Amino acid sequence: MERLDADGLAFLVLRDPCHTATRAVEKGPTTGHALTGALAVVTDVAGRVLLGRSRRGMLELPGGKSDGPEDFAAAAVRELAEETGLIADPADAYVVTMLGDDIHGIPRLTAIVRITAWSGTLSNPEPDKFARWEFFDLHTLACAGAVFAPAALALDAVWPGVIPDLPPALSYPLAVEQPPVPGEPAEAVRLRQAMAQTVIEGGWAPSEAVQGALRSVPRHRFVPEASLVAAYGGGDRAVTTRRDETGVSISSVSAAWLQADMIEGLRLEPSAIVFEAGSGGYNAELIAHVAGPEGRVVTVDTDPWVVRRTRRFLAEAGSGRVTVIEADATLGAPARLVPRGGFDAGVITYNCRDIVPAWREQLAEGGSLVLPLELGGYTWAITFERRGEVLHARRFTYCGFVRDQGQQACAVPVVPLLDGGLTLRFDDGVAAGTKGLEEALRGRRHEVATGVTMGAGAYFGSLQLYAATTLPGFCRLRAQQDGGVTAIAKGRDAPAILGDVSLAYLTYVQTRHGELPEDEEWEGVVRSFGEQGPQLAEQLAATVRAWDRHVRAGDDDQHADPVLTVHPAGTPDHLLPAGDLLDKERSRLVFRWPGRNGPLPAPARCTDTDTAAVTTGGS
């Protein structure tokens, strides 16, 4: 024992005699109380996985028990050769996950080994155990029939979600480096080029960098449960990868045209470092391709399943330039991953009800942020540029995404009416009082024709945004059943405004029929109920006319975007620019629309009708 003193601080150092000849010892003779083994996951040049049809009537992966002190990678390579005749180097075998279970009361530990290269000719050296070996397309595994449970879990470890409804098992993913595994069918290449061409011809990918990403990144490798046709989908369809218990999509790979449009909005330079909120892998890999070999993407998601899936798919088919983090993306990226000066760009891939401070704060000055923002219940992918503490909108794209699952997630106030036949949604605020409104809905209906007509395929997005951001009391009226007092079709909704025991909403009545869609025409009509109904109808109709005159200027259906700035919550009113203010919890949005300060057009004709005399019209 020693007593030492350091600047008045006394401490004791206690030393026991040191043991010598440290060694490992056994408690006694070993017993056969556990099993260890390895399963090999092998794919061919078309990306199909190797499975054997065993004599027990199920599909199995190559593999078996470990042999003595043999490591798991070597065991998988050996079993592959013994069972299939294929030869692999242990250097090309990577243990990606350890699975633990208890079969017949005996603990079992299975290493899932991904083999990235092999040679030889497929054969069946053990015909007493297997009827044959063959390669299977990944999207067929969900209906392949009986699969040996450890093999099914192994397939899920490499391609999470490829086989649904698996039995529970303990899984220990290993953080190992694995090179991308090549292989895809020629059909995938053809479909990818066709998808890219569709997106390019639609004007969504004008830059060569984004065009190259669409042509190069294998989209189907990030949705292995989908067929090639579904994965590429012509460029205009999203692929749902997960649903909640009600069947609502909570995770998906977005339509390629929308991904291209949002990436174009980022205005990426080579070597850009980009933040992505909401993972999946494919969109991040597109961004990484555009940013180039020196670029990097940090993608964050709160769902452990999505994170595990993204990491595995990027290991299989990624560039190695994407970092996947499990965290709440509304808090931004972990501080250690934020580059000095901030991210060059950021993209949010789920519907946002608000713009959280971290996304702005972690963005470099002049950097671009693209996010799908909900305004009045409708969604626009808006491209912003950071200038100090203010975000300035550059462009708007009407779209839709899955909803946020993080701290921003919250329920939208919905008020049922007429025994649930109608609902009112208040997407940007608390539910307004509706006492007495049901009685008004059973009474006299008032109509105002706006005089604004639209042809087939007309774009309503800018009208919805204009109404949602300029009208007090804005909400959405939705029909839950056909017919009824509103004559709104089931499942459709209409922009609406709520007053004192009164309601007005916008619908459309066909005014011209024709053999071809381009010969047809509809007119906007405002219908209202309640004592204040006529005034509300005039207000809503005047808004439609103002939109038609100033926003939808011209006959070519071109629409002017508003000037939008986003300010931090708490910004005093006197520091905000003039315009229509929309307050959210964490931000203040100011919209300035063309013509908002000028006189509105004079009201058009109006009629009063009884509810029973109403002609049915679509919403």
UniProtKB/TrEMBL annotation:
Its EC number is 2.1.1.77. Belongs to the methyltransferase superfamily. L-isoaspartyl/D-aspartyl protein methyltransferase family. It is found in: Cytoplasm. One of its GO terms (biological process) is methylation. Signal peptide: none annotated. It comes from Streptomyces nogalater. InterPro entries: Methyltran_FxLD, NUDIX_hydrolase-like_dom_sf, NUDIX_hydrolase_CS, NUDIX_hydrolase_dom, PCMT, SAM-dependent_MTases_sf. SUPFAM superfamilies: Nudix, S-adenosyl-L-methionine-dependent methyltransferases. GO terms for molecular function: methyltransferase activity. PROSITE patterns: NUDIX (PS51462), NUDIX_BOX (PS00893). Keywords: Cytoplasm, Hydrolase, Methyltransferase, S-adenosyl-L-methionine, Transferase. The lineage of its organism: Bacteria, Bacillati, Actinomycetota, Actinomycetes, Kitasatosporales. The keyword S-adenosyl-L-methionine applies. This is Protein-L-isoaspartate O-methyltransferase. Residues 600-619 are annotated as: Disordered. Residues 31-159 form the Nudix hydrolase domain. Residues 609-619 have a biased composition (Low complexity).
